[in-house]
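Hi C.,

You asked whether I'd gotten around to modeling the 186-residue construct. I have! Everything is below, sequence then structure, no commentary in between.
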Amino acid sequence: METKREKQIIAATLLSLGEREARYFDFLAKHALEAIRMDMPFPILLDEEGNIVRKQLDPAFVAWCEERGLDPARTSRRALYDLPGDVMPLTWARDSRATDIFREALAAPNFYIANQGIIGLAILREPDEIQEIVETIRRMPPQFRERAAAALMVFDNAQAHALAREFVPDEERLKAFLEFYQRLVP
């Protein structure tokens, strides 16, 4: 029996190859939307400057877990790996039906999920979303901004490229990120 993740990979692969059957898209969209709409606070503690405080969970996250009888350590792993992993296959699918889902992901309290929204919109080359993508990048912790901002280079847009360079001034790093994203673009 295939796992949920295996089914997600199969559905994403079929969609990326041009299959348009709704059941594959709906399967991916269902799991992505569940992750995006989760009201779980971001688990990692951030300091006043927005930097990650290593090996410390955010007290709001711990309280959220306690209110629901959840183990904070196990739930933080779910927040950082499983939930973004439920959005990622929809990104790989490169299906324009996901545009609104990616827009919604930009507002997610989980920065990893918001990053998947950025990547999804960049892969679909949604130029109307550039400003909202930049606003999302600005609210991210500094350690997350480079990877997210490099997705702006996928757009055929001078403003997007200038904004990417604002967040990733090192041209070699920007080039490496761009090469990664270009592998995802159809």
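If it helps when you're writing up: The chain has a mean pLDDT of 94.

Thanks,
B.
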